[in-house]
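= Tokenised fold =
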Amino acid sequence: MSTRTNLRVHKSPRFSFLSEDQKETIFHGMLKVLRDTGANVHHEAARDLLKKHGCKVDGVRVYFPPKLVREALSTLPLMTTIYDWEGNEKIYIEENRSYFGPGPTLVYFRDPYTLERRKCLRKDAEIVARVCDALPNIGFVEGLISISDVQPGLEDVYEFADMIQNTTTPIMAWAFDRGGARDIHRIAVAMAGGEEAFERKPNYILYSEPISPLVSDFHAMDKLVYCAEHGIPQDYSPCSIGGATVPATHAGQITVGLSESMVGVVVAQLINPGTCVILGGVQSILDMRRAIYSYGAPELHILSGGLTEMARYCGLPMFGTAGCTDTKTMDIQAGIEAALSIHPSMLTGANFVHDCGYTESGKTGDIFQTVLDDEIIGMSRIIERGVEVNEETLAIDVINDVGPGGHFLYEDHTMKWFRDHWRPTLMDRNSYEDWTSKGSLTMKDRIINKTRDIIENYEGPISKVPGDVKKDIQKILDEAEERVRTKSSK
């Protein structure tokens, strides 16, 4: 049988929210906003740098010439690789490759045993890290928490220290300020085996957030400068609220969100051309009836998808949002809203998709939701793969050998290819009799059982962390405590 050459190319199914003309229009809209409206940059050194390179500066307001924005985009890296702390490649940032993970800084946490909503504790960082390490479809880790039982001002550092020792999945870290960013970087360097090893194989990304509309506050910009100076891959992404902090129209919201991230792109490229900057963030609407920033709204999927396309248009990686819900507990709504956000995120090709485990409209972290999301991501991956068409998969010879009325159960071809079929770990496919004999477990029951099994039986990589590295991390934590105490006493 001859093989058609053009059938060797296998393309995954994709869809777009924006036409090429619409992307071009939004891009030029962003250039006009930065040129005519400008952005407030509350960081004197950054303003001086921008002024030196042709920006008009009026107080804290900075106006960006389009040429400068285009020049910054021209120096962006074609690809970036993130490794685990053992030096293994884990994330390769390229077009249409998506990695999913939890989100950061939630006030409450769903206790895995009492199921009660409570304040976040330090032990939760370890739980989230180990569970994520065990889940095959989670590609990066954030904490889902804001720790309440450590020295105030060090929640970021303790979270990172505990997570990086309990997972080899790369971490998207956050920090209050440059001091926290520096402590986190020192821990990452210790885990990597030194500064040179980290420079060759970075093992984390730092997340910072400008403020909508069009404000880069001091700490967000200061962290961006620190990352650019040290070659740390970073995410500079706003949390935009349609109808509140940005226009209620989708095109207006995407334009403002793109403009806010672009401020960080320009500054980072001026400091260190070629450094990795990711844009995106949470893009959703304000529910005017309830004053809720909706994490389950269908508009979130449209806005995230549209901004993903704009990121690709600009040559930037995208930090999207999915796997989250407005509901308060494990129920049907949680599954519906998570699935309807995860699948579009994958098919539009966002590179990093966070908030898998966000519930209660971004107030409560729920590791059960993350476990459910992992199953949904696995299902979506199968759909993303599409249909591979070649001589082997067409199976014409096998069809001919079996013939009409036969079956394929014992064919070598079947034995080889059925293993590619997706196998659920949570979805139920038992017969009714088997289901009842096993306790008639609901989806909620199965999620709880799987999550607790991981917590109780999956150790993670903590035993592989060298003793001297653990001592180095403890020393960094002790010095961070002293730094915060000294700062608070002034």
